[in-house]
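User: Please predict the structure of the protein below. I'd like the answer in structure-token form so I can feed it into my own downstream comparison script.

Assistant: Understood. Taking the following sequence of 255 residues as input:
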Amino acid sequence: MNRQIKIAIALMLVGGLLTTTAFFMAFYTARVRGNATVNLVPPVDTSFNIAPPEFQPEDVTLLAYEQPWFSQKIFYFHVPVAEASFLVFTVAAIFALMFLIKKDEKYDTRSRVAMETAIVFVAATMITGLLWTRASWGVWWDWEPRLTTYFIMMVMMIAYYVVRNSVDDEERAATYAAVFCIIAWVNAPISFFITRLVPSKHPVVFNSGMDVTNLIPFIIAQIGMLMIGYAIYALRASEEEIRVRLDVIKEELED
């Protein structure tokens, strides 16, 4: 087992531990900001923005909760996964650009592996996003700007594999895939900044003024998820390197 694989496995374990810790902190330590509290015994934990009718106070401005909502619990997993998807996609685009400049096969391999890793995080983002949307907005999907642009990005990432597999010549396929990867990546910063540019129901995380009890698990989850992202990429890259070496050995033996 080479050093890269050992590091990747270690990061995978540590990252998994950190994200799991952050998720449980979301249940037991993270607090939800509110204007006041409703004195209910026991405290009501709900995924809706308002309490059930039988618990409505006469003055609705006094409504708050003592425990995080379900949507906010998902938040500590959904946001780091989404950020990792953007970051890994950016790595794929950088390697794609390097391949077009240097025409070195290793950059094409790294770009392809990064795209495989990114699509894993995109799928996880979509799944957790649907759960969050259902809990927060009461629907499974809403064609608001962030969801729409992210969905387009996901479709283009899937199309990347269609483009790559539609050409028989490996060099041409790598070139077309690299160009398409860069074009598809343009949608990533648009999707990331869209909620800051146009009106959107989607919350802007870094403008929310999180409490320390919210910020700590959020940072832990981010660090853990980035570790997992790098670990997945490194393990796949190592697998590709081993495959190439085996192919070279096989060709030498056949000769």
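That's the full token string. Residues 78 and 128 are 6 Å apart (CA to CA).
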